[in-house]
Amino acid sequence: MPFDLHSINLFDMGKQFVFTLTLQKISFLAVAFMTFASAVAVVTMKNIFHSLLFLVLTFLGVAGIYLLLSADFLAAVQVLVYIGAITVLIMFALMLTSKLMAKRVSQTMEQWIVALPVTLGILVVLIRLVVLNPWGMKAAPAGPTTGIIGTSLMTKYLLPFELASIVLLVAVVGAILLAKEDKSDDPS
Amino acid sequence: MCDFSKNIMELTWLIPVLPILAFGLILLTGRRGPGEGAYIGIAGIAASFLLSLAVTVITVASALGGHEFHPFTHSVVWATLGNIDVRMGFAVDQLTVMMLMVVTTVTLLVQVYSIGYMHGDPRYPRYYAYLSLFSAAMLSLVISDNLLLFYMSWELVGLASYLLIGFWFEKPSAMRAAKKAFIVTRLGDVGLFLGLIVLFWYTGTVNMQEMFAAVPSLMGTTLKIASVALPVLPLAGILLFAGAVGKSAQFPLHVWLPDAMEGPTPVSALIHAATMVAAGVYLVGRMYPVFAYEPHSITLTVVTVIGVTTAIMAATIATVQHDIKRVLAYSTISQLGYMMFGLGVGGYTAGLLHLMTHAFFKANLFLGSGSVIHGTGTQDMRQMGGLSKKMPTTYWTFLIATAALMGLPFTSGFFSKDEILLEAFHTSLPIFWLGLGAAFLTAFYMTRLVALTFWGEARDPSIHAHESPRVMTIPLIVLAVLSLVSGYIAWPSNNIFHHLVHFGDGAAVPFSWTVMLLATSAAFLGLGLGLALYLRPVISPSIFREKLPWAYNLLQNKFYFDEFYWAVLVVPLFWITKVLARFDARIVDGLVNGVGYATLGLSIAYSWFDRVVVDGIVNLVGGATRISGRVLRYGQTGVLQNYALVAFTGVLVLAWFYLFR
Amino acid sequence: MNFSLFYLSPELILALGGIAALFVGLASKSRKGFPWPEVFCLLVLAAALVPTIAMLTMGRVTSGTSIFGGIFAVDGLAMFFKIVALISTGIVTLISTDFFRRIRFHRGEYYALLIFATLAITTLAASADLIMIYLTLEFLSLTSYILAGYLKQDTKSNEAAVKYFLYGSIASAVMIYGMSLIYGLTGTTNIVEIASTFKVNPASYSLLYLAVVMLLAGFGYKIAMVPFHQWSPDVYEGAPTPVTAFLSVGSKAAGFAVLIRVFATGISTAILDWAGLIMVLSAVTMTVGNLVAIPQTNIKRMLAYSSIGQAGYLLLGVAAMAYSSIALPSVLLYIFAYTFTNLGAFAVVSMISTRIKSDYIRDYAGLIRRAPAAAVAMVFFMLSLAGIPPTAGFLGKFYIFAAAIQSGNSWLLALTIVAIINTIISVYYYMNVVRYMFFVKAKRIEPIEQPGIMNFVIGMTFAMTIIILVYAGPFISMAHISSGMFKGI
Questions:
Q1: pTM across the whole model
Q2: Cβ-defined contact of A106 to B591 (cutoff 8 Å)
Q3: Based on the domain organization, do A8 and A89 belong to the same domain?
């Protein structure tokens, strides 16, 4: 049956929380605030290089949340791939194109006046539903997760794992194709 | 039925196949084909005609033979829908053979006639290809034993009609007419399609005979659409009838037929007078058990009311038209209305008899008018006159057909029209009087047409009329003979036709001298008034226009149906599509401009702030460029951010709609 | 793990064939010689088709089984969509040989990408696990982005690729949010296990509903469902025509495959009553598609909106799945008929527009004189899309509407009436093309060259468009066999 939401006030929900500030909670709030604030900065900075720097912070925050959820492997991958590889790649691209480095561009357009209420609406819906839902919590795994993930990738999820390699192949082929400068005498 | 007859009957499926072969052959050979394709088409339809004749003789002989007659059927499994086998095949009974004879005869004559009429046309082979396609579709419609094949042929017939109306597409009016005909009839087709689906799911079959067998069990069954309970049988009947209304140009979907006169005249004769438009009447006749599930059912009442409205309305419009083909077109609409209300008042035999006689004399009239147009080069009757001497064959055949249409005694129309009026007389007197009124109007406008065209003096000296070639006049003579004699098979005291084609127990309504005398005097009254106005103008022909200008204008403008549909349906639809297209391609126009120029003002203010406070005076030029660039960008299509906005709004609306309603 | 490698053979053939195609491309650089890349691509597709058809006829497979612990379904539904993907890519390959004849492009990679795109669809059709579904959808999207931007010299093609990429990223981000919500609710990503979890432990209904809406953003974007459709006219217009044909058929069929599987085996109506939601989306989709198609002047944009409208009719069938047992076969039959019809239409468009150098409908004027065979075939493709007999499209619409009416659900009946009104509206713009081809005088009258290969493609799709109706029995029984689905052991 549909969940009747009329009777529940969004702002009453605070009652359900028990304000016991453990160390874990303090660190969660700090990391979450950092992630959120730097994400906002990413989309509001006028200089694209500044945006990129805040993006690194956002990624770091997400890695922190993974750590708090005892997902140690994911946190490591997050730092290695997103910060170590992707942002560095973008940084190289930016630095090689000096025009972009100095440019100051507004990231918003007139649409924001409509987009803001829509986004807030989705936020309200999400918060209501996610907070009110009785989540069945699972105990966090006791030890490091890397082994478990490795095992399931090689057994149950072997097929997607192999398929991912083909996806990567296609991505590489596509990247080369689109980036390659065609010589005019190229026959094919 | 002996084995030989059985073998012949087994070949019935060839009747539509032969013309389709001709169609393919003409497409392949083009101008290189015999007679530039004409002979192929004629050979195809002639073979169909001979086969139909054989089938007819066998069927009639065994039906009159005294034994109980069973329709000859043959079918194969076409598909399995769910757990139902859908079979496709043909069925031959008396009604089928009547229609077969009408269609093949008229088609054959029209194809022969077209050799002369279409001579020298740049797209001559294509014309014969389309005609063959049409005959094939029409014939498969006639012999179909199931509603599905019937519907498919029905649509194919519509396609052929579309191609032929727009045949002379150099005329923009022809193109418009073709499109109009296709779309207006399609409105009705949708009804037929829905009726077919409803019947299919309630009877579990598309086979007509099996449907009829299931009709009694459907009495009282209802179909619920959102808390409205609809009785299935009337629903199905009215939906089927919607198809007939579209195809047979009944009120309120009659508007396409007069415009369809933009096609070549032989096409008008064949498709828009004798065969295709009669297919609607044939549909009602074919599916009669669904319509007449009880005497005076609601369905039959609808058929009657629509039929009689059409008959009167079209006849009044016909009295003031100047274009010879348009007069005949409105006459066709009116006569089709006649057949419909004949069927509606329970005159199954009468309505179908009129279908047959009308096919002959109306084809004759159209071909005759084609001959006149061929001879004079105009369609406006005000430019004609005095053609009786210059075109004697055309004149006399035309006169015979006119007499038949008026229902003058001892012509074919006399028998069929009297029978319809007789049935109406016994069922509903108001309908009878309205029918009589239509008969009077028919006699009047036909007298006017003949007088303006053939009698008096030639009004336009620049036109040098000549008689048409033999290849055109011989079909006219054959049709004139048929218009004269085809009614005798329904002679009141020995009604063979009724014996063959009847519904239920088949007791004929007793003959009535009152009805016959009233009908005949209505015809003569109309004839007399016409003569008084146009032959020896005792009364001035313009009296009507002068005394009642508003009524004259109303008729001259065909009760403003076209204008009404244009304003109420077409214009709003196009407006909506344009608005939606703009909205869809450039949502931001709708959204942001909708939110108002306030946004623009805001952005100007913002950029002013941007310029002065943050970037200083240096960026002034850049800022201005930026704004103008933004404004321009919305002029182009496809701003991705807007698409994303629409998607997210969609997610929000869908979620919100459900969760917070 | 105990399974026959045979079940995976189409995918193995495609994966190896795709890699090999890259090398074949390297080996045959010259345009002059034997067209190895094209032929090799067709051979790979044909080789993959053989085991697929064989599996469809195996009783055990059509009733449904799975390999890799339930994440890769082997059933009638998967086989059906694999066949559709293989056939449609085959036809697209043939169209491509003509389309790219005078254009410089990287040939070997192009055909390799086509094979990989097919691989994406075949695995997607069999995916019974949210992780697999996400991965294969991304795989398909990634390949499609590259293909859409394949004409590097053409700014429209570049724009199409970028737009498609950005829009697709947004849609799949929303979708994976929905997936994570479902994982949070059930603790599993396998859709069969999701179903059994929900049955035992009914979840928070409204959160599941939100998750479904988010999933629909991802699936809806693939099938071009309103309001996730706006990328399609731009991308259809800009992408090379054979790629557009691929997107409008193969890619769309893939979207329906995953939509059907998730709704039929994962989140069934017993868990969440999604029929109403789909009905609303169906009505909006077909109405917007058909109305906006009317004022279009570019034939590729017109066909884009037309295929949005077609998705609306198909969604009607999907909604009817909740009530009628013949709804799923009717949807499959419709997709099968639509495949040949739409590819045929795009084959004509591709052949004509490369020669008259225009995509505008007005430039199709007088086509009956310039390319009679193509014009006549096009009439039947248009009739089929409009659902008018004697064409396959009529059978598809008839079957879908019949399924909706058979269900007896009054809202479905009302929706059917909306759909039928939509088919009348659609006649207008389909016949508009016919009108230009037959009834408008051409500015130029010299005949358009029709190469043999295009005659073959158009003739074949045309024949199928007729045959599916005339000889419907085998196709209907195929649709019924194909509606067998893996629903857990």
A1: 0.79
A2: no
A3: yes
